[in-house]
């Protein structure tokens, strides 16, 4: 057994089932081990941003890490943006990054790079495995570090010789799962006091508590105490739709967020931090809650607040089972030229029960989110780190994790171009993903932001870096070229028909919604 | 004037003419400044790997830096692989990376990231500008650092508030150009002695000395002394073709490289380091020259060895003007099904004088390089850092730098997928680039390397990460979808006709050569 086999066997024993990869020469011993050994399914991405974003989507839905296998510093670099998003999502991922053989490192060959330095920017745990004797233990430690809680990115750098040299035959047992510390009685009491105080109080929930159980407890607490209930603007995963207790994300722009939090004297934080603006602007505050609002931490950022919310509900004498839930409703459909409202109403009407929505629709997101509130129950995955190019890879990984659920990508055309190679992996693996390209042929959010800077009429040079309409992208061709069936809709009726057809078949489909 | 305007004005005064960009909200003040001020031409890439690779191609051909404008850590991360290649090419680039406003950094908003940490992995110079009073000087320093010599990557992090706050009206003058130190007389004498010693001696040249002048001096030295003349396997830029003195790159694989250097007792190094294997392999040496071969450094790595080679030629009493050059020859064309030889012969026969070749053809490269030796004179740009996804962006930037020259991308299909968004920028800017996709539908180099590991018959799981034939990529659609005219050739005659047509028209074209 060589180091690569020890690595693969250890990961398999620790429960890792999937390895998203774009390998190179220095990873070939690991590829050979994947080939020889059962346990891990390798899935190829034609670009590393696909690989890392898929690992994020897999982790969000499977609740456990996939491995990635990446080629030295440049391969890790290509995957960095989606690792950034995964980091902010507290998604557990085990990155395996190949590197030059130990004895080769000092020669500064063309592919020599600072792998560890690059990894540190996005990883909670980084280690360079320095011998085949220890690579099994290193891999077990990496899985344990990734799982947390909270989940994080663990990067194990694997020099080629550590992979190819002989390793001992023993495979380490997985580390026992860590437990989140229970909620401290003092914190619970302080939050309960605030909620009963009669003062304006808010409850801000994020992280794993945004499943149905956590939401029921949060909604019951809000209903019984009169607290304003919010989740973060961008969340790892949110259960929603008919029969699920509703929660409102804080608005994206600082002004309406400040208004939503206006007057609060207490804010109970569950699995998140005090709310801050996404970007800073001249003469605007970064902190969104009022200056005199007291922050009460019930559960630390990234941790699962579900048990604590249930304890808090009990302390307030209310029952999660009695929390109000959203009533299902079928929206009235549009006719005529396609617009965003028509798109949103068709998605809401047709969304299959148990669907997973990967949302990277940027300026279209608010409308789509609002209109699907009463659709069939589903999970919503957000752009957690603001690094665009997340949506298509995330959908790819979510579909690998949940092969029995329909995955829907709501994608801006600008964002989709970053990691369009995802479509090829969806076709290769015949994943059940419907991609809706919201084609406004503009970096529309930047035009909005430019207006907020007072520059409402940019001249040609600014427009040339904000508009993507010349030449026009043809998303039907971009999808078909990668083996994904595709169509274009320019009317509400055509969009509805195409979406209906996509949702009643299995396998990858793309609809370019030109509006 | 705000900080962004001071930044843009300083760059323009220092001679920077182009800004390749994919901006976001934190860069909009710089976008607004580019819009208002003359001097810098912004060019949009739909992915940051396009932006940084284009800056590299521009630098290699213009001999001076372009700026890039990137969006925080994730935007820089997306550009990292091609910055790695540019670093290895000693290409001068000035990266401007936006970041959160200074007062916003401590809140860990979703896009907060370790911009400086990521930048350090690929930059020779990194600075965070901390005030609008100093941003002009910071920009002038960045340009000076980028120019070198040797050229390097200079990254200036620009917090949003430093861009939007009021700046002084004075624009710093560009730093005076640094001069390479002249060659030390002792080094010159030692190299001359070795070349006259009668011992087997080699001359290994890389960097800017691979222009026509440096090559003439090197070839004259080799002819008069009997030295074996080589350049590195992967070079920033090499002048070649009819009428240019020939030079042989060291072979890629270690075994033939060791053979080429076999028996040498002295190796004169001009602008490069002692040759090392690209990757390490079990039981194979990393260093390629014989153990008892003495290394003589005439010119340090990355520096221009042209003057030193001319001095050395003079010391040996030989004349660069008398160096033998390659005689032009027109290859005999093939007929029938398309193969690599037919592709290479058509390229050689049709290549326009003064063409710029961006080579990322990987397993096809040796044949294409060899067959074009006697083509019309041209420049050849290599994959300097081994990070694939360089070729199409590099061609894009080279075409911006040299709008009067035909640019030819020789591209593997696997490599082309990394940064295929380059085609859109080529169409938008109507750049004169012909892309030839060498479509073997495989990561062929990895199959070769797997065979070298003794694994000649990989099973399904290994093949599933090395072959990219299911689904088949349609490069005609991928190009047309982005506004680039495209065609597919499966016979030698069709390829020749399509290439002839592409070379006689201007503007972007793509040919999928299926062989």
Describe it for me?
Two copies of one chain form a homodimer. Chain A has 515 residues and is α/β, with parallel strands linked by helices. The first copy, chain A, folds into three domains: 3-164, Rossmann fold (3-Layer(aba) Sandwich), CATH 3.40.50; 185-322, Rossmann fold, CATH 3.40.50; 340-514, Thiamin diphosphate (ThDP)-binding fold, Pyr/PP domains (Rossmann fold, 3-Layer(aba) Sandwich), CATH 3.40.50. In chain A, 38% of the residues lie in helices and 18% in strands. The first copy, chain A, contains 21 helices and 18 strands. Chain A has helices at 3-13, 28-36, 48-62, 72-78, 80-88, 115-120, 135-147, 160-164, 185-196, 212-225, 254-261, 306-315, 340-350, 365-371, 391-401, 413-416, 422-428, 444-452, 460-466, 475-480, 492-504, and strands at 18-21, 41-44, 66-71, 93-99, 125-128, 153-159, 201-205, 228-231, 238-240, 248-249, 266-270, 294-299, 355-360, 378-381, 407-412, 433-439, 485-489, 509-514. In chain A, strands 9-14-13-15-16-18-17 form a seven-stranded mixed β-sheet, with helices on both faces. In chain A, strands 2-1-3-4-6-5 form a six-stranded parallel β-sheet, with helices on both faces. In chain A, helix 7 links the parallel strand 5 (125-128) and strand 6 (153-159). The radius of gyration of chain A is 24 Å and the shape is globular. The N and C termini of chain A lie far apart (57 Å). The mean pLDDT of chain A is 96. At the A-B interface, helix 2, strand 2, helix 4, helix 5 and helix 6 of A face helix 2, strand 2, helix 4, helix 5 and helix 6 of B.
